[in-house]
Amino acid sequence: MMLRYALRTVRHRKGGFLGAFLALMCAAALITACGTLLETGLRGTIGTERYAATPVVVSADQNVHRTTVKHKKGKTKTKHKAKPIAERAWLSEHLTTRLSRVPGVDRVIPELTFLAEPLISTGTGAGGRTAYGHAWDSAPLTPYALTTGTPPRAQDDLVIDRYLADRARLKPGDRLTVQSTQSPRTYRITGIAAPTGDGIRHQTSLFFSTAEARRLAAHPGQVTAIGVVPTEGTDTAGLEASVAKALRGTTAQVSTGDERGPVEFLDAAASRIKLVSMGGAMGGTSLLVAVLVVVGTFALSVQQRHRELALLRAIAATSGQVRKLLGREALLVGAAAGVAGALAGLPLGSWLHGRFVALGAVPATLQHTVSVFPLFAAVAATLIGAWAAARISSRRIARIRPAEALAEASAERGRPAWGRILAGFVLLAGGAVLVAVLSVLRTEPASTPVTFLAVVVLASSVALLGPLLVRAAAAVLGAALRRTGPGGRLATANLRGNATRMASVVTPLTLLIGMTCTVLFVQPTLGHAARAQAREGIRADWVLAAEGPGVPAGAARQLRTDRDVATEVVRTTVRVGLDKYAAQGVSTAGLARTWDPDVTAGSLAELTHDTVAVSELAADQLHLKPGSTLKLTLGDGTPATLTVAAVYAKGLGFGDLTMAHDLVARHVDNPLAATVLVSTARSQEELAAAVRKFPGVRVVPPATADSLQAERLQANAEVNYFAMGLVLAFTAIAVVNTLAMSVSERVREFALLRLAGATRRQVLRMLRTEALSVLLLATTLGSGIALAVLTAFSIGMTGSAAPAVTPLVYATVVAAAGLLALVGTALPGRVALKARPVTVATARE
């Protein structure tokens, strides 16, 4: 019975439910899109390319492991955790001999993969594809076959693939300069190879002679992987078992089928975690924002039907029946909006994945994965959110006595319910606690989720305390508004008499301004502090920067003399236990002339191959001091035990761990220096002449290097801006939606004003004054929330209560919010004023 009434209500009040439908549909689309990203991170396929013809691939373990055993109440619990390392782990080449003896093995093919960037006339790079160097011996893994020319035999011979040859218009006999792990070298192209089929889409292969490939790989006695080709008639599953048995007692791993893709594309495998984190953070924030927005939208929808629901109470409808009616209406609207939004979220998720690939946050080799799970999750979340929003919004109207119902419907209640006020102060206290916690968090992974959660919780407290805040604002602004004429006096009366309705508009505007300011200024706050520390700590006269993969060691040697210092800086990530730390390797000779991280304990003079310098943050977290022993895992999984030589203060600018350059360079995929700091009396022109033979290497002053670093930070920040941009877009839609609903319900009010003598222009002026008053309140509240959160974030991460806020950007945010408020008010207001006042006033409700 109640379901039939709900269907009739929805059918005959389509316009009244349109706002709730749009809010729920946008929420479902956003949740579905974030869900597909999360699922891609968890289950996304990484297809194999170079190992297509090799059914079994042996590789090194790419994880750091930790096993803990706990004894409690006579029971033993064993937990095993694994975290990926940052660089490629290598295998011992001696394993090829062991594998060649396995029954059923036809060929064992060792693989070398290393940095090899072709420097072609049209620019540095391989046309959007990542370039790798290999030994020609590994060509059968794909297989690659020569289409013209001969294999590489001499050290300066090179075979390139068909893609690079066509793009750069190269042919056998031409010469090509390649920037690899050593100084750039020019090779003679002896042949062009093409893969079987069209499976190679994300990489370019350069094949060297075996001796040259081993020199460039710079890992003597090691290989990156081993391909195992079975004899004819040998079952792959059986061969996998035999190979695994032969490798028992080693850390080598055996991969077949789709498992070969993560071995081939390590960056895609590492991006799984990033995508899971990004999708989870976006989805969680979207869900919280959606709940807040949808509750406000339903509250406004129920308020618009106050007279109708009160009449139901007056004709003997029970509280339970009213709640059931509203709940079923919400479920009907939620089901329709959830299905429509979930379907719209599929292309949105695909577009999001494509944008993340274009921005470089996710490699194209991690294929977008879609299943029914995000759809079901979005529909379920929409249904639950709609039902909960309707129940919360209907509590007061369902609980009043029938005799009071019509009286309640005639005017807005003077004071919000005590339960609402209490809940608002509880959330306000919770937000204050989150802000306090944020001020002591010193790592970005820990502080980022708390930052956005604090904004949502504080905005939720504004939603609950909104009527009180609106009345307080009306009291403060009343005197000024009344001086603006009849429109101002009417606006003041509306702010006081319809505080609940106005509060439903203040909430999404507050959330929009608070969230937008937080998103836009979190990364600059961290980046500016890091750059400031780097500027203060760099003492060099000049800096070598590279347009390609890095500055070769030969360029630094070219500048290093008895009087001049050239400090190479190579960056990586290491793990202490399972925790990840940003690290760098620096040339130790003359380091004090080029680099000063503000040492607070110990001395950088003690920095050698067996020692490490740590930031104060790392020292606090790991309980270290000069002389302490630190066990860590280098980027390629190699364990190392080092002695702490110094503790320094500028960890944001220079990373948490600093080691000797040669130690780090041996254990990274790209040993080229990110920058080279030069202390010299020579001029820029003299230095440029000395490194002219190194393509892409420039000599710039430290200020220019700082600007280049700012550009890189901005590029990284764009990913975060884009990730949260959809949440902000949803909030902006909610602002316009709520404003339109708020204005559209006032058609009768506008008609009565017109009949009382108000002109159309005066009514519109009243609406604009109301909108500006609400905007001023929302701007104050949203800015206050953002300022509190950003200040706490800055204290925790930088030690300074000075977040980086750009006035022009802030003014743009407020102007955009104001434009939304005015448009969302003016357009529905003009539509509402088109009807004849007499017709509206005499129409039956």
Secondary-structure blueprint:
Blueprint: H1 2-12, H2 14-43, E1 56-59, E2 63-72, E3 75-84, E4 91-92, H3 95-100, E5 105-111, E6 114-120, E7 123-124, E8 130-135, E9 144-149, E10 157-161, H4 162-168, E11 175-180, E12 185-195, E13 203-208, H5 210-217, E14 222-223, E15 225-230, H6 236-246, E16 253-256, H7 260-264, H8 266-304, H9 306-314, H10 319-359, H11 372-393, H12 395-399, H13 402-410, H14 418-438, H15 444-482, H16 486-497, H17 499-537, E17 542-546, H18 553-559, E18 565-576, E19 579-586, H19 591-594, E20 599-602, E21 611-615, H20 616-622, E22 629-633, E23 639-648, H21 651-654, E24 657-660, H22 661-665, E25 675-679, H23 684-690, E26 697-700, H24 702-744, H25 747-755, H26 760-798, H27 807-832, H28 837-842
Parallel strand pairs: 8-13, 10-12, 19-24, 21-23
Antiparallel strand pairs: 1-15, 1-16, 2-3, 4-14, 5-15, 6-7, 6-8, 6-11, 9-12, 10-13, 11-12, 17-25, 17-26, 18-19, 18-25, 20-23, 21-24, 22-23
Helix pairs in contact: 1-2, 1-10, 2-8, 2-10, 2-11, 2-24, 8-11, 8-15, 8-17, 8-24, 9-13, 10-11, 14-15, 14-26, 15-16, 15-17, 15-26, 16-26, 17-24, 17-26, 17-27, 24-27, 26-27
